[in-house]
Amino acid sequence: MLTINTFNAISQRGLSLIEEDLNYYLNGSGDPDGILVRSKNLHDFEFPESVKAIARAGAGVNNIPIDECTEKGIVVFNTPGANANAVKELVLANLIASSRNLFSAVGWAQTLQEHGDDVAAVVEAKKKEFVGSEIKGKKLGVVGLGAIGVLVANDALALGMDVVAYDPFISVDAAWRLSRDVNRAMHIDEVWAECDFVTLHIPLTDKTNRLVNGSSFNKMKEGMTILNFSRGELVDESTLGQALESGTVGKYVTDFPNPRVLSMKNVVPVPHLGASTVESEENCAVMATKQLKTYLETGNIKHAVNLPDVELPYSGKMRLTVMHKNIPNMVGQITTALSGFAVNIADMINRSKATWAYTMIDLDHVLTEEEQAGLKQKIESIEGVVSVRLI
Ligand SMILES: NC(=O)c1ccc[n+]([C@@H]2O[C@H](COP(=O)([O-])OP(=O)(O)OC[C@H]3O[C@@H](n4cnc5c(N)ncnc54)[C@H](O)[C@@H]3O)[C@@H](O)[C@H]2O)c1
Ligand SMILES: O=C(O)CC[C@@H](O)C(=O)O
């Protein structure tokens, strides 16, 4: 039996894939084989030794200590693209709503009941204070052209906007999906200088932390609206307040409110709703659960952030999986360890991603419990090996 524990509210569509499988316990013990999580911060979490994999039902993995997990032999998955449409729709909604002052106007209209039969007259007298602008013909900058950025860029074009985008690391897949009418910014400063709206769709990493900062604000077109549905830390809050005060930034729409940002003027706080649709929560939960179960049951890896995709059809009687550093002679040492157990290799695969690698070897017969323990111990003692499983 395998155990998967969950953090956060995971959609029932995903949980049923565990509950209805007789080989699994859901939230069954303190020593789970896998963890399903959404936004819970796991940086201070003590991972039990039993944990072999974590699946993040969502895109951002900044809540998970990836390097620590990798060193402990834990594979970390996310669900690329599974919530992209939900985020795109909310970004477009906020693009229009912020341009039309919709939230403050509606907030005001909700207070009018006391005017009784005069409501219509009060509305007509005051509505000029909420006059907005159309987004058609305005310039939108999209920073990050991954699953979400591409959808936003393409649909903004359809709404009549000029779109300029910046992503020096764009994937070939994303480039294929991007409309050729999206203009390419060669430097992020072009986005700051030219755009009426900028929307951020990049992961939070050491390199992108405070990507939008005092130097960016100095280059911005006066009155620009920034939409941040990626992560709060991408914007330097110590200089944002002044940029909003001076009008350099006309509005800051953020899915990540905190006390500091809430005290600033012209902030539109959204309570982290980017991925909060029934459809997106189901997509993420189902994808995360399937990836996690596949890894636990077969060792095959799809959409891990710390290891490459590795798939091998099961062709032997027993499977050996080894997670190890991407250094010379690892496969040689693993097969040498196997040679002491008089077992033939039916098939094998080795793939690497940056400094880490993964080797799967199908064996032509089932080893005894004693042999399995001996083989595991031998391979675990190889320098650079962080996880060994026999499935
Ligand atoms: N608000 C929400 O509920 C919500 C939901 C989903 C995702 N997100 C956030 O949005 C982020 C993006 O999601 P996604 O699904 O599009 O991810 P993705 O991985 O598909 O795309 C990210 C893109 O950013 C690009 N990029 C990385 N560094 C960059 C830089 N310095 N400058 C420009 N581009 C850069 C990458 O090349 C990639 O194309 C996630 O990491 C997550 O933090 C938030
Ligand atoms: O789980 C959520 O609601 C938010 C997910 C979102 O921030 C993500 O990065 O995918």
Automatic annotation (TrEMBL):
Its EC number is 1.1.1.399, 1.1.1.95. InterPro entries: ACT-like_dom_sf, ACT_dom, D-isomer_2_OHA_DH_cat_dom, D-isomer_DH_CS, D-isomer_DH_CS1, D-isomer_DH_NAD-bd, NAD(P)-bd_dom_sf. It catalyses: (2R)-3-phosphoglycerate + NAD(+) = 3-phosphooxypyruvate + NADH + H(+); (R)-2-hydroxyglutarate + NAD(+) = 2-oxoglutarate + NADH + H(+). Coiled coil: none annotated. It comes from the Bacteria. The keyword NAD applies. PROSITE patterns: ACT, D_2_HYDROXYACID_DH_1, D_2_HYDROXYACID_DH_2. GO terms for molecular function: NAD binding; phosphoglycerate dehydrogenase activity. Pfam families: 2-Hacid_dh, 2-Hacid_dh_C. Pathway: Amino-acid biosynthesis; L-serine biosynthesis; L-serine from 3-phospho-D-glycerate: step 1/3. Belongs to the D-isomer specific 2-hydroxyacid dehydrogenase family. Catalyzes the reversible oxidation of 3-phospho-D-glycerate to 3-phosphonooxypyruvate, the first step of the phosphorylated L-serine biosynthesis pathway. Also catalyzes the reversible oxidation of 2-hydroxyglutarate to 2-oxoglutarate. PANTHER family: FORMATE DEHYDROGENASE 1, HYDROXYPYRUVATE REDUCTASE. This is D-3-phosphoglycerate dehydrogenase. It comes from Rossellomorea marisflavi. The lineage of its organism: Bacteria, Bacillati, Bacillota, Bacilli, Bacillales.
